[in-house]
Amino acid sequence: MTGRRVPRPSELRALLAPRRPELRPAARRLERATTIRDLRAIARRRTPRAAFDYADGAAEQEIGLSRSRAAFGRIELVPHALQDVSAIDTSAELLGRPSTLPLVFAPTGFTRLFHHEGERAVARVARRVGIPMGLSTVGTTSIESLAAAAPDTTKWFQLYVLRDRGVTADLVARAQAAGYAALLFTVDTPVAGQRLRDIRNNLTFPPSLRAAADIARHPVWSLNVLTTEPLHYPSLPAQPGTVARVADELFDAKLTTADLEWLRGAWRGPLLVKGILTPEDARRVVDLGADGVIVSSHGSRQLDLAPTPLEVLPAIVDAVGDRAEVFLDSGILSGAEVVAAVAMGARACLVARAYCYGLMAGGEQGVQRAADILRTEIVRTMGLLGAGALGDLTPERVRLRPPGA
Ligand SMILES: Cc1cc2nc3c(=O)[nH]c(=O)nc-3n(C[C@H](O)[C@H](O)[C@H](O)COP(=O)(O)O)c2cc1C
Questions:
Q1: Which ligand 1 atom minimizes the distance to the CA of 134?
Q2: I need a labelling partner for 333 at 20 to 30 A (CA). Which of 15, 80, 355, 382 fits?
Q3: How many CA atoms lie within 13 A of 369 on its CB side?
Q4: 166: how many CB neighbours lie within 10 A of its CB?
Q5: How confident is the model at residue 237 (pLDDT cuts 50, 70, 90)?
């Protein structure tokens, strides 16, 4: 039997000493985040609820978002043993330009709501990592100032066609003149989706300090918002106060394929149609000159009960994959999910929430952390699969297990 002893006073002192609050500089906090979900947990603590929920939430009952997550949970990756994976090449060619990863930072509106550096921080990380990033029509940094702040980042401009076609044509011309490499025409927002969290949180833009009761609990966020350039939509002719009103008052619900034809003529360069969910629509827009499609449910933020992008991806790749680049987004939270999508035929994946969590958790460093997490997950997954390059990610390497299995 082990004998007992009287503890030494120094041991007791260490045990009973009042804990000094641990100094947790932002860098250390971010370093401890090993998954995008960890970054999400930090983001939730550090950002007012209305801002966090705007990124985290989805439309209506958020069924589409749960279905997207469930679909990623059904992925089965099939390894090939005894392959030399001592050097793994993750590089891709996206719309004729090199990218170090099959990954793109998706366009997001209201980005400076998450952190005052907003799109500039995202663009700097995109350049450092070597991937493209999208600027939204309802972004919080102007086309030209983002181009000036991040001249070497591959930037794609996301277009919502506005009722005022003069302003729309002007946005296209400005993006072209400022050197944006591609135009993303979003087609899944003919009317505003219903985001219940935003309604319950009374989210307005710019945020009303009175309405968001918990803003006072986030003094650093508030101070940054109050002491930097006021939040506004530099690309819009008017400044409606809520997300839903922007879509309903400014976006054009009369969009047809004639608008795509018009854009094809107006934009010199790669044109992607964002928000495609059927092979028929994919064929239609590629026939009209689109260089690619983004298979997307807008992160389940528009039509809640839409098809799940990952599940419809193979049929869309079959329909147009030989003559257009097919991208996937909506619900991606890990590098393994990007690898699976590439094996199913996607050229690359877009992520929005993943980097928004990073932005909320720690500004530019947080976005960098999100990119580092996704990159290491992509590399590790490829290594474990025995895939030395993206070309090794063929459809036989991935299966979707039946629901519930
Ligand atoms: C906060 C936020 C704002 C967004 N704003 C836009 C936008 O202005 N235009 C657009 O085409 N898509 C927008 N999206 C959709 C994304 O571009 C992308 O399609 C989708 O969010 C990908 O899913 P994920 O966020 O789960 O990665 C937004 C998404 C989020 C999360």
A1: 17
A2: 80
A3: 28
A4: 8
A5: confident
The closest-lying atom of ligand 1 relative to the alpha carbon of residue 189 is 11
Distance CA(146)–CA(112), nearest Å, equals 13
Residue whose token pair is 């049929």: 315
Ligand 1 and 302: CB distance under 6 A: no
Where b means 16+ CB within 10 Å and e means fewer, 323-354 reads ebbbbbbbbbbbbbbbbbbbbbbbbbbbbbbb
- What gap in Å lies between CA 167 and CA 321, rounded to an integer? 33
Question: Residue 105 in 3-state DSSP?
Answer: strand
**How much is the pTM?**
0.94
Sign of CA dihedral 170, 172, 175, 178: negative
- Region of 255 (left: φ > 0; alpha: ψ -120 to 50; beta: rest) is beta
**Taking CA 292 as the corner, what is the angle to CA 290 and CA 298, rounded to the nearest 5 degrees?**
110
**What pLDDT sits at residue 331?**
98
- Cβ of 337 closer than 6 Å to ligand 1, yes or no, is no
> What distance in Å separates the CA atoms of residue 54 and residue 115, rounded to the nearest whole number?
13
Please tell me if the CB atom of residue 299 comes closer than 6 angstroms to any atom of ligand 1: yes
Residue 193 Cβ < 6 Å to ligand 1: no
Reduced DSSP (H G I as helix, E B as strand, rest coil) percent helix, strand, coil of the chain, to 5: 45, 10, 40
Give the separation between CA 219 and CA 227, rounded to whole angstroms.
12
d(C-alpha 331, C-alpha 65), whole Å: 7
Q: For 212-234, how does the pLDDT look when each residue is reduced to its tens digit (9 = 90+)?
A: 556 778 888 888 888 999 889 99
Active site residues: 298
